[in-house]
């Protein structure tokens, strides 16, 4: 009984570690897009510098997962819980990298007047942050319905990305001089669309964790 209690405590700590990593990633996404919209070099640099912490969190959690597998030899749903954790931190780490890439774009175009106020890209960022939060809530609560919601959220982000693409394409056709900045903003939009895809991946992990069935949500 004591061994099981210790294992349950270790699983609970693992969940908390993953949640903390997710909170840090959410914050990085928000600050990266804010640095882009406000052309804030200092904020962009803080996101780039903070990526190391996300990488460190991933390695720390990965070590804990592997130690649990080696020492507890979990079966069935317990094994799926730990495997899901390993895959979730990989998605979170990639989201952190993409936030870092957005911050690098912000740094690159910080000395240029924006060709237009950014509206849809911050909306995409807000949706992506919500998806990350909901995905992690679904993980902790093992909530399949919330995990399935990722598919609808992802469609909204895809729709906004397509809107940004069309709008910037028109800007470039009308004024070829802004092609460099418009291309950079297109990449930022694409990075947010990929962040939403990673959140959807987490939703798929939750469905598998709870039901043992694989479901494509993208």
How would you portray this structure in words?
The protein has 218 residues and is mostly helical. It has helices at residues 2-38, 41-72, 76-108, 120-141, 144-174, 179-211. The longest helix is centred in the N-terminal third of the chain and has 37 residues, at 2-38. It is elongated, with a radius of gyration of 19 Å.
State the oligomer. single chain
C-alpha termini separation: 41 Å
Runs in which pLDDT lies below 50 for 5 or more consecutive residues are none
* Element-by-element helix/strand order: HHHHHH
Basic shape: elongated
Number of helical segments with 4 or more residues: 6
| Major beta-sheet overview | none
Strand content: under 5%
Alpha-beta classification? mainly alpha
Mean pLDDT: 94
- Report the count of strand segments: 0
Radius of gyration: 19 Å
Helical residue percent band: over 70%
Subcellular location: Cytoplasm
InterPro entries: PhoU (IPR028366), PhoU-like_sf (IPR038078), PhoU_dom (IPR026022)
Function: Plays a role in the regulation of phosphate uptake.
Subunit structure: Homodimer.
């Amino acid at each position: 009984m004591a061994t099981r209690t210790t294992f349950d405590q270790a699983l609970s700590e693992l969940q908390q570690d993953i949640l903390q990593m997710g909170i840090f990633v959410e914050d990085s996404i928000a600050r990266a897009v804010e640095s882009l919209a406000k052309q804030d070099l200092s904020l962009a640099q803080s996101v780039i510098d903070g990526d190391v912490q996300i990488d460190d969190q991933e390695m720390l959690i990965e070590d804990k997962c592997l130690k649990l597998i080696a020492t507890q030899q979990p079966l069935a749903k317990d094994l799926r819980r730990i495997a899901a954790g390993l895959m979730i931190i990989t998605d979170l780490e990639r989201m952190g990298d993409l936030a870092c890439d957005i911050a690098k774009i912000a740094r690159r175009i910080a000395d240029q007047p924006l060709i237009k106020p950014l509206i849809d890209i911050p909306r995409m960022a807000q949706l992506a942050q919500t998806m990350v939060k909901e995905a992690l809530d679904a993980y902790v609560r093992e909530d399949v319905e919330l995990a399935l919601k990722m598919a609808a959220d992802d469609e909204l982000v895809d729709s906004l990305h397509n809107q940004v693409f069309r709008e910037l394409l028109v800007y470039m056709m009308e004024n070829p001089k802004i092609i460099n900045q418009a291309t950079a903003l297109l990449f930022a939009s694409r990075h947010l669309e990929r962040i939403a895809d990673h959140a959807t991946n987490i939703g798929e992990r939750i469905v598998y964790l709870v039901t043992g069935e694989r479901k494509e949500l993208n």
